[in-house]
Specification:
Blueprint (H helix, E strand, L loop, with lengths): L2 E3 L7 H10 L5 E2 L2 H6 L2 H13 L7 H8 L4 E2 L8 H7 L4 E5 L3 H10 L1 H7 L7 H14 L3 H19 L5 E4 L5 H8 L16 H17 L1
Parallel strand pairs: 1-3, 1-4, 2-3, 4-5
Helix pairs in contact: 3-8, 6-7
């Protein structure tokens, strides 16, 4: 493991994961890998161990069930376990991906939280089961009320747990230079920093729904 990107979702984690891959630090384990590798049940097991005391706390051996072969992580579910991953992979550099709180909150509301509250509670899909677990434990299943507190506490935790380690506080908008300096690699010439977002179409759909609702009122 070379790089742990431990910021919360919607802090540029996908763009940073793609940037790291372009720089030769890959593959990176991002949320998109969960369904592809059918890891939902394993992450639920990890969440149960952390928050519900079911089984022993997870360490490197357990995380390697999902992360073996990857050179980095970004986004949820890994970012649910910042302290655990920092301890499990002492050789890894740490990046805290951040952004302005208001922008992050609005983005979460129109993506992860909107999807979570739109799904039927009895949706049996593995991804929904995982989603319900982390929404319940990370912000008490009430993101509008508790999301901002989670954002602040999470960032503080990562900064504290990273003391003494190779660490970068980073926003994707800052681009290649600080990231490349941190990693000790050349800045790609003539290559734009990735602006990746799997949620683009979903956000457009949410905005269209809002417009229709406003027009009907």
């Amino acid at each position: 493991m070379k790089v742990l990107v431990l910021g919360l979702p919607r802090t540029g984690t996908q763009s940073i994961a793609d940037a790291l891959t372009q720089l030769g630090f890959g593959p990176i384990y991002h949320m998109r890998e969960v369904g592809k590798n059918k890891h939902q049940a394993l992450w639920i097991e990890a969440i149960d161990a952390k928050f519900e005391g079911v089984g022993k706390p997870w360490g490197r051996e357990e995380f390697e069930k999902m992360l073996a072969g990857f050179e980095g992580v970004a986004d949820y579910p890994p970012a649910i376990f910042p302290a655990e991953l920092i301890a499990a992979y002492p050789e890894a550099a740490i990046i805290l991906s951040t952004r302005d709180e208001d922008g992050w909150y609005a983005s979460m509301m129109s993506t992860l939280w909107h999807l979570h509250t739109s799904r039927p509670a009895d949706d049996p899909s593995p991804m929904n089961q995982l989603s319900r677990k982390y929404h319940g434990h990370c912000w008490g299943n009430d993101f509008p009320k508790n999301g901002r507190t989670c954002f602040r506490e999470h960032n503080t935790l990562v900064r504290e747990a990273s003391k003494g380690r190779k660490f970068l506080d980073f926003q994707a908008k800052d681009g290649w230079v600080p990231l490349c300096e941190f990693l000790g690699v050349p800045v790609p010439e003539g290559v734009a920093f990735p602006r990746s977002d799997d949620w683009v179409e979903y956000k457009k759909m949410v905005e269209m729904q809002k417009q229709k609702q406003n027009a009907a009122e």
